[in-house]
């Protein structure tokens, strides 16, 4: 067993993990932060995206012990301090960027990272950035619209609609 200490959504946490424990399992099982979803266990779907030291990471591909000493942000930590939705979360709600909601936490975390890196991305840049996140319901159009809106840009009509 390994002792780990990290800051998750601004709070210091500690735990005991086996060397093989994935970060996603530590977050979900030990910390009960179940918003980070497990969709594929092979890093292909993006439902498990969290931020580790400010960078988007697929938590099913990182060992919990590797996060020792890190700052981790999950979907549960994205709301504003007053409990209201973040700009990205609100845009997903306003522009119907979700259907079943399974991919939504990973999409929101990816979108947040993209907007930090590129505050005014084009539609093509958004689609390219989301390449590692799979949604089986929406066809991505409303997800892209949501991210455009969150960036403060006009939401264009999209060709495939």
Give an overview in words.
The chain is an alpha+beta fold and 161 residues long. The chain has two domains: 2-76, Ubiquitin-like (UB roll) (Roll); 87-150, [2Fe-2S]-binding domain (DNA polymerase, domain 1). Helices cover 29% and strands 16% of the residues. The chain has five helices and five strands; from the N terminus they run ββαβββαααα. The chain has a five-stranded mixed sheet with strand order 2-1-5-3-4, with helices on both faces. Helix 2 crosses helix 5 (141-150). The longest helix has 14 residues, at 104-117. It is globular and about 55 Å long. The mean pLDDT is 94.
Q: Indicate the overall shape.
A: globular
Mean pLDDT across residues: 94
Multimeric status of the protein: single chain
Which ranges are low-confidence, i.e. pLDDT below 50, for 5 or more consecutive residues? none
**CATH level 3 topology of the largest domain:** Ubiquitin-like (UB roll)
Number of helices: 5
Q: Whole-Å distance between the termini?
A: 52 Å
Number of separate domains: 2
Biggest β-sheet description = 5 strands, mixed
Helix and strand composition category: alpha+beta
Question: What top-tier CATH class of the largest domain fits best?
Answer: Alpha Beta
Rg from C-alpha positions? 16 Å
* CATH superfamily label of the largest domain: Beta-grasp domain
**In CATH terms, what is the architecture of the largest domain?**
Roll
Total count of strands: 5
SSE order? EEHEEEHHHH
Can you give the helix content as a percent range?
A: 25-40%
Protein name: Carbon-monoxide dehydrogenase small subunit
Keywords: 2Fe-2S, Iron, Iron-sulfur, Metal-binding, Oxidoreductase
GO molecular function, one term: 2 iron, 2 sulfur cluster binding
Organism: Palleronia pelagia
């Amino acid at each position: 067993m390994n002792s780990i200490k990290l800051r998750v959504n601004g709070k210091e946490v500690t735990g005991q993990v086996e060397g093989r424990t994935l970060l996603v399992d530590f977050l979900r099982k030990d910390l009960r932060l179940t918003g980070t979803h497990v969709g594929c266990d092979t890093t292909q779907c993006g439902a498990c995206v969290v931020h580790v030291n400010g960078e988007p990471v697929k938590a099913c591909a990182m060992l919990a012990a590797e996060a020792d000493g890190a700052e981790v942000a999950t979907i549960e930590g994205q709301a504003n301090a007053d409990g209201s939705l973040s700009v990205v979360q609100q845009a997903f709600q306003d522009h119907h960027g979700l259907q079943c909601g399974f991919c939504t936490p990973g999409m929101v975390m990816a979108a947040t990272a993209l907007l930090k890196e590129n505050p005014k991305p084009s539609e093509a840049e958004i689609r390219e950035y989301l390449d590692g996140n799979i949604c089986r319901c929406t066809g991505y159009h409303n997800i892209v619209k949501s991210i455009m809106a969150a960036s403060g840009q006009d939401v264009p009509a999209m060709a495939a609609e």
